[in-house]
Design brief:
about 700 residues; Collagenase (Catalytic Domain); five-stranded mixed β-sheet; five-stranded antiparallel β-sheet; 14 helices; zinc ion binding
Length: about 700
């Protein structure tokens, strides 16, 4: 193993302690810059363009083409990153039970020991240092219940005495239709009742065993949430008082895990959910749009092709409806009067929880009628627009944009303006992402509410960090734990949980490929890609996935069980971040998928991308976040594709050996992951740090990537 660790410098414990005491130096701004409490680590400000980009060099130090490799990070930037990671780690270790004292000075002395405890729990190399793998795990979204039982703020080892339990939903998130929230919680509880004697009955008033609520920040239990991402939810174990209560952070984007779920109103689709992407007048839309309407109302198609099916509905907005409150679901009435002031839009004024509301009459002071405003279908997070929705088209640096963009940012995040011109108004926010599956997070938290602790099995539902799956999330480890507390279910084979209201993608067959990758010591992979935060390794007709380098690979699955219509063999693949579409190449065609669904109009010829018709196929592909370009490899040549302009850059192809220092003249697969670019050839790989693309490591794929 290389001694060069993920932070660039191996820090001795004493230096770690000193760094912890240093104030953070101001960091170079990303753009658009976030302001006002946005939880991304961006600095304040509002300018979206990147700074200091001239003078870029080619890979391997060659001058000329100018965009293939941005400048290396400065030493100051690396030091700032180390200090940010250190402070994050100390908070993580303290809040999640790995530090035995709440005293800051004592906890710093314990830091290496605390890091080793955390590494041991997650089955990482026990270095006692903040190496890349450790920091990556700490930054993953997760449950807020501590991992270490001996220091658990939510005491464990308790169970309910009765088998008939009750639950009550105290409030709702604006992110999902209330019926979808009800269904998600019911299905999550059904998972546990299917394998135990437990039953769950919903109450609509009074005290229930499991009280469910959404909240933000400090929400009344002494364990505040931390804003978007980070800690998603927490739950208390069985006991009197708050025992069993389950709380969900409403600063998260709650969904069914595969993008915003938008249930339409009115139109002609009878309340069906939006279908993203959809075609309208030959243009593909990945979100609600006002195109084709004079009244500015946002709408969507409920099928893949509006031009053919003409099925549509309106996306939720305060002009159509409210929820909760006492206004009977009526739409907002603008302007309205509250405490003598006039309001032209939803407001959080008068509330401590930050929820946006409006009056459903023109005078709240007189009528006292109100409702909560739904999350706009294109509501933003972060930025400086206080959650205002995207406005399309908008102008940025004199160019017009009809969709979210990553242009102007170094971190690859998609953003939009919330007025028609960013250049004039400087108002912006981050675009909606895939969100977190309320069903999966709730199933995990209800496990705690029933008495389970966190599992060390990475595939288990009760593993601390979030991961999305379409499969039944319960593993033998989860079932063994819950049946240890309550016994097996009555009546033999458990019934299946209630199905989701949205038809799920095709499920994998009961018997997958009989392939043991760790025994194939000279394995060559056909393609490798990062999809939904996990790394997928494609071999013949199947694939395996890992959550991070060195973690145990999941069981093999047939490609077509996940991506219906995909050819038997995948030759190259990558995910385009602005749309989150995964692109697969095989022969002279390419396929694009949103989740497990093939987009309309695919497959297409690779000539549509600007590749030559005589090209028999690609070897590898990856998207490079630093210049927003996609690199395509075939034989000893490579091409560079501009994702923003949707065309191939001029003067390509080029020879790999002329611009990629030390990379083989032909490669099997490539991957951009965790701040590095990996080239795979036969059974080994080469790691290049993607700021300057200097060779950082050579390793064995099976050992370092698939946990063999």
């Amino acid at each position: 193993m290389s001694s060069h660790r993920g932070l660039g410098v191996r820090l001795p414990p004493l230096l770690l302690l000193l760094l912890a005491l240093l104030p953070l130096a101001p960091s170079a701004p990303l753009a658009p810059e976030s302001g006002g409490g946005e939880q991304t680590g961006d600095a304040g400000g509002a300018e979206p363009q990147d700074y200091g980009q001239p003078g870029q060099h080619d890979v391997g130090g060659r001058a000329g083409d100018g965009e293939d490799a941005p400048l290396a990070s400065s030493l100051q930037e690396k030091s700032e990153e180390q200090m940010r990671n250190l402070r994050m780690a100390m908070k993580y270790l303290k809040n999640l039970g790995y530090t035995e004292t709440r005293n800051d000075s004592s906890s710093m002395v314990q830091l290496p020991s605390s890091i080793r405890k955390m590494q041991r729990f997650f089955r990482l190399a026990e270095t006692g240092e903040l190496d890349a793998a450790t920091v990556a795990v700490m930054k993953k979204p997760r449950c807020g219940v501590p991992d270490v039982a001996a220091y658990n703020l939510f005491p464990r080892k308790e169970k309910w005495d009765q088998e008939q339990l009750t639950y009550r939903i105290l409030n709702y998130t604006p992110d999902l239709d209330t019926r979808l929230v009800d269904d998600a919680f019911a299905r999550a509880l059904a998972l546990w009742s299917a394998v135990t004697p437990l039953t769950f009955q919903r109450l609509y008033d009074g005290e229930a065993d499991i009280m469910i609520m959404f909240g933000r920040g400090e929400h009344g239990d002494g364990y505040p949430f931390d804003g978007k991402d980070g800690l998603l939810a927490h739950a208390f174990p069985p006991r009197s008082g708050e025992g069993g209560d389950s709380h969900f952070d409403d600063d998260e984007e709650w969904s069914l895990g595969e993008g915003k779920v938008i249930k339409t109103r009115f139109g002609n689709a009878e309340g069906a959910t939006c279908h993203f992407p959809f075609l309208f007048e030959g243009v593909e839309y990945t979100g609600c749009t006002a195109k084709g309407r004079k009244d500015g109302m946002l709408w969507c198609s409920t099928t893949a092709d509006f031009d053919t099916d003409a099925k549509y509905g309106f996306c939720p907005s305060e002009s159509l409806m409210t929820f909760g409150g006492n206004g009977g679901g009526k739409p907002c009435k603008f302007p309205f009067v509250f405490l003598g002031e006039t309001y032209d839009s939803c407001t959080a004024t008068g509330r401590k929880d930050g929820y946006r509301w409006c009056s459903t009459t023109e005078d709240y002071d007189r009528d006292k009628l109100y409702g909560f405003c739904p999350s706009d279908a294109m509501a933003t997070s972060g930025g400086n627009a206080e959650g205002a929705p995207c406005v399309f088209p908008f102008v940025f640096l004199d160019d017009s944009y009809d969709a979210c963009t990553q242009n102007g940012r170094k971190d690859g995040k998609s953003w939009c303006a919330t007025t028609s011109s960013f250049d004039d108004d400087k108002k912006w926010g981050f675009c909606p992402d895939a969100g977190y599956s309320l069903y999966l997070v709730a199933a995990h938290e209800f496990g705690h509410a029933l008495g389970l602790e966190h599992s060390q099995e990475e595939e288990a539902l009760m593993f601390p960090t979030y991961k999305f799956t379409r499969d039944n999330p319960l593993t033998p480890d989860d079932i063994a734990g819950i049946q240890y507390l309550y016994g097996e279910g009555k009546g033999g084979k458990p019934s299946q949980p209630t199905k989701a209201p949205v038809a799920p993608p095709t499920q994998a067959p009961d018997t997958g490929p009989k392939y043991e990758v760790c025994k194939d010591v000279k394995v060559k992979f056909d393609a490798i890609a990062q999809i939904n935060g996990q790394v997928y390794f494609f071999k013949n007709k199947m694939h395996m996935r890992v959550t991070h380098p060195g973690s145990r690979a999941g069981r093999p699955r047939w490609n077509t069980d996940v991506w219906e219509g995909l050819p038997e063999r995948v030759e190259a693949a990558y995910t385009e971040p602005s749309s989150n579409h995964t692109v697969f190449f095989s022969g002279t065609k390419y396929w694009a998928y949103a989740g497990g669904k093939l987009l309309p109009g695919y497959p297409k010829s690779v000539t549509r991308l600007g590749l030559p018709a005589e090209l028999p196929g690609l070897d590898a592909a990856f998207y490079w976040s630093h210049n927003k370009k996609t690199y395509l490899f075939a034989g000893d040549k490579y091409w560079r594709y501009n994702e923003h302009k949707k065309k191939m850059d001029a003067d390509y192809p080029k020879l790999i050996g002329d611009y990629w220092n030390g990379v083989p003249d032909s490669v099997d697969a490539t991957l951009a992951h965790g701040g590095a670019v990996y080239f795979f050839k036969d059974f080994y790989y080469q790691k290049y740090m993607d700021r300057n693309l200097r060779l950082n490591k050579v390793g064995v794929s099976l050992k370092d990537w698939l946990g063999c």
